[in-house]
Amino acid sequence: MDAISERTNIERTSERELVVTRTFAAPAHIVFEAWSKPELFKRWWAPKSIGIPLLSCEMDVRTGGTYRLEFGHDASTSWVFYGKYIEVIPNARLVWTNEEAADGAVTTVTFEEKDGKTLLVVHDLYPTKDALDEAVASGSTGGFGEQFEQLDALLIALGAIPVER
């Protein structure tokens, strides 16, 4: 098991649910900002290994707000992920829809701080077993480890995590 896999736990908890957990050595309010401020989110969300940049990132992070993420090398070959925020509790919880496909998951992210560290839990609930099977088979659920390494790097750059010497 590599270091990325050891730090990020990805588990299928039922036929329709995928749960990802990771602890970050930063306070919850800073980790939450990285998830809710477009200028920070776009610095870590797209796994660099896939080589497809996040072209635009529009986020109105409030209950009832919307988001739109466009990936690709140019607008003519891009694809868009979008949805709405069902629940936003600053520094504690984000819940949003993934409406780019009829079988998109509802994603819940929680931020639990203890002793200056944040336990982050991402919970994806798919409408059917087949929808989750397809997401896993397509590899769309496999980028969390790399994304969270990129989030760690951003938190270090922001000064939220001390650099180990």
Report on this structure.
The structure is a single chain. With 165 residues, the chain is an alpha+beta fold. It contains five helices and eight strands. It has an eight-stranded antiparallel sheet with strand order 1-2-8-7-6-5-4-3. The longest helix has 14 residues, at 144-157. The radius of gyration is 15 Å and the shape is globular. Mean pLDDT is 90; it is low at 1-5.
Query: What's the count of strands?
Result: 8
Global outline: globular
* Number of discrete helical segments: 5
Largest sheet: 8 strands, antiparallel
Output the radius of gyration: 15 Å
**Strand-pairing-aware structural class:** alpha+beta
Distance between the termini: 24 Å
Query: Element order, helices and strands?
Result: HEEHHEEEEEEHH
Average residue-wise pLDDT: 90
Low-confidence stretches: 1-5
Helix content: 25-40%
Task: Give the strand line-up of the largest sheet.
Answer: 1-2-8-7-6-5-4-3
Task: Determine the strand fraction and express it as a percent band.
Answer: 35-45%
